[in-house]
Amino acid sequence: MNILNLFKVSINAVANNKMRSFLSMLGIIIGVAAVIIMMSIGQGSKESIRKELSTMGTNLLTIRPGADMRGGVRMDPSAMQTLKPEDYQRIMNEKKFVTKVSPEVTASGQVIYGNNNTMTTVYGESTEYMDIKLWEIEEGDGFTEEDIKKASKVCVVGKTIITELFGEGKEAEAIGKNIRFKSIPMRIIGVLKGKGYNSWGMDQDNVIIAPYTCVMKRIAAQTYFSSINCSAVTEELSDAAIDELTQILRESHKIKEGADDDFTIRSQAEMMETMSSTMDTVTIILVVAAAFSLLVAGIGIMNIMLVSVTERTKEIGLRMAVGATGMVISLQFLIESVIISLTGGLLGILVGGGISQFVVPLIGMPASIPAWSIYVSFAVCTFIGIIFGYIPARKAANMDPIEAIRHE
Amino acid sequence: MSEQTDKRKVVIELDNVKRYFQVGSETVKALRGVSFKIYEGEFVTIQGTSGSGKSTLLNQLGCLDTPTSGEYYLDGTPVRKMSKNQRAKLRNRKIGFVFQNYNLLAKTTAVENVELPLMYNNKYNAKQRREAAIKALQEVGLGDRLDHKSNQMSGGQMQRVAIARALVNNPAVLLADEATGNLDTRTSFEMLVLFQKLHREGHTIIFVTHNPEIAEYASRNINLRDGKIREDTLNLNIKSAADALAALPKPQDD
């Protein structure tokens, strides 16, 4: 019997027992749907985190002072004073894989306007900061190189500052007003476009950005940077940019060959990787749990197939009497169980896909079905059909036609 | 039977066939040395009471089983040392089975049932299968019921489908096992008319039964007892099943 006829015979057998076939498929349908939903939620979360991180610039590199050892005590990195204006100058002069550079000095505290006040952080930056972090200005202007040179007391503020100090939607009015931060008056020259909360629940709009020179001299009174933000030419060249920066800084800090760096450079890509791998772990755990239901479904199919083989003993006997070999009989039952599990898998993909597309977003979760999960589902279902169809198929093949045909 | 050299073709030859079964520590001797030849175009009944070994003999003739000793030649081919798969192929090409319970596939049309043996023969494509099946069904008088499903047919019709299925592969021998056992008298005679027709057309038929009446309509009768041949006689006065059918009282139409 050729394979096409076998498929026809097996499809007929499944179709002749619609209810039973459907019930044995049900386990597979639920299992595959569960796996698809878990995978799509995992993938969706990953994509949304990725999107979020990319709003900060995917080619972002952050240089921080390294945690140094002082007499066996590891020091707090923020207390380190290793990132100096000379480093910044050197990077500016020698950079090739790095496009934008902004040294960063921060100061946290209360900002006051009239009767209102709020807690915030002032970021002292260069003019290139906006491009590095992908900030856009909604009202007014950013500060200029001139402002940096003069350490002007000007600032660009986030939406939250406007809402807290001036009231919602008062962006235009706030331009030109002086706010006080630690008794230093600063003139608002621009308002940033809102970015909202990030996935850690931090309000990204609660910021004041000012020339770094101003923050260093007038507010924080320090001669070193807390970090330096850079952007690599492209995301792909991040590694080359890191090597380059490392080289520059080691020379600048006169670090001997073999000695450890006294700074660390983190790329956004690396951050994403960390986040992704955390999500992956969670996804894998969920998918494994769902996959166990597929195992149970496979056992269900085996059970039904065993019943089916017993029930059709006479048919098997007849087929053998008219010339079917054991091989052909076992193929017939194997194909039948693969058809059941594959059809179940297909329905499961439809159900799981439907739920991920239409139901999961309703409960506010991101979902995105990875294409490979569909291929894997197909492969797994075929595998289940063969594995769990094998024992019933062998039982059928090993029947004695004499006994089988007289079976009542 | 004929001792003189026979010019007819030998379809079946049994040479001292013995079949023993091991049941626990006992050896059951189902066939204790059976020898005979069946020639092309013979209509042979094999009779015997239960326990006479006729089922075992049928299994031997049908290549469903192999002898413990002796040899069985089917159409010249020795069967004893054949593998399971070889015997499956041999059955497919050389034997047509008709069973007592028809053994049709459920929820399947007459044509599809008849096509079944050809499904296991790669020499036939779908078109040839269907053509052969239709021809076989016409031969048994069911040309107008090709697409009836097995559960929509009467016992007699189902047995006709089963006979068509046995004929479809053009077998060397037709093996009927109590083929009228489940049918009423009238339908039984209808079936015998059909077998006699097939006999006239040159088919070799072996009909295993415990009903001695059937022997009167066959050309030869082999009688078994205790695993041995008790009697092997030619029937020189074959009765016509058609006449017997006509003589039956008409079914009362009430």
Question: How would you describe this protein?
Answer:
- The complex is a heterodimer of chains A (408) and B (254).
- Chain A is α+β, with helices and mostly antiparallel strands and 408 residues long.
- Chain A folds into two domains: 3-52 and 274-405, no CATH class; 100-230, no CATH class.
- Chain A has 14 helices and twelve strands.
- In chain A, helix 2 packs antiparallel against helix 10, helix 3 (85-94) crosses helix 9 (238-252) and helix 10 crosses helix 12 (326-359).
- The longest helix of chain A has 44 residues, at 268-311.
- The mean pLDDT of chain A is 87.
- Chain B has a single domain, classed as P-loop containing nucleotide triphosphate hydrolases (Rossmann fold, 3-Layer(aba) Sandwich).
- Chain B has 254 residues and is α/β, with parallel strands linked by helices.
- Chain B is globular.
- In chain B, a hairpin with a 2-residue loop joins strand 4 (69-74) and strand 5.
- In chain B, helix 3 (110-119) crosses helix 4 (126-139) and helix 3 (110-119) runs parallel beside helix 5.
- The longest helix of chain B is centred in the C-terminal third of the chain and has 16 residues, at 185-200.
- The chains are: A alpha+beta (408), B alpha/beta (254).
- The interface between A and B is medium-sized, with 23 and 26 residues.
Question: What's the helix and strand layout?
Answer:
The complex is a heterodimer of chains A (408) and B (254).
Chain A lengths: L2 H14 L1 H37 L5 E6 L3 E2 L2 E2 L10 H10 L3 E16 L2 E10 L3 H4 L4 E4 L4 H6 L3 E4 L1 H7 L5 H4 L3 E4 L2 E9 L14 E5 H9 L6 E6 L5 H15 L10 E5 H44 L1 H9 L4 H34 L11 H27 L3 H5 L3
Parallel strand pairs in A: 5-10, 7-9
Antiparallel strand pairs in A: 1-11, 1-12, 2-3, 4-5, 4-8, 4-11, 6-9, 7-10, 8-9
Helix pairs in contact in A: 1-12, 2-10, 2-12, 2-13, 3-9, 10-12, 10-13, 12-13
Chain B lengths: L9 E14 L2 E14 L3 E5 L6 H8 L7 E6 L2 E2 L5 H11 E4 L11 H10 L6 H14 L15 H13 L5 E5 L7 H16 L4 E5 L10 E6 L2 E7 L6 H7 L7
Parallel strand pairs in B: 3-8, 3-9, 6-7, 7-8
Antiparallel strand pairs in B: 1-2, 1-4, 4-5, 9-10
Helix pairs in contact in B: 3-4, 3-5, 4-5, 5-6, 6-7
